């Protein structure tokens, strides 16, 4: 029996509405599965989640090269023409991703993302998958 999926979409809406110029907010598992979304359609959210899985894996590999750290990725920010992409660790096996326009207040975005993760971090945990169907 599987547990019901917690609807976090309203929490993501709060982040999006509190930071002007926010486009998309998604929560994903470390293997790239969308857990919640706001501001985008499910197909786009799924594409972003899949891309984020690769990015978090790459950034974790880079974090492992620092001798005094814990080897874990905390935050990735990418600036592209037209905007910013943020990816933040948000619990065991879960990540918070945001796309925002280029005139977003980056300090406010970072602060609101940290607040959201702190407030609901236990809900943003994606436990590891174990086993498969028993035949």
From TrEMBL:
Superkingdom classification of source: Bacteria
InterPro entries per UniProt: Mycobact_SerProt_Inhib_Rv3364c (IPR053141), Roadblock/LAMTOR2_dom (IPR004942)
Membrane-spanning intervals of the chain? 83-104
Offer one Pfam family short name for this entry: Robl_LC7
Q: Which UniProt keywords apply?
A: Membrane, Transmembrane, Transmembrane helix
Q: Where is each Roadblock/LAMTOR2 domain found?
A: 9-100
Q: What is this protein called?
A: Dynein regulation protein LC7
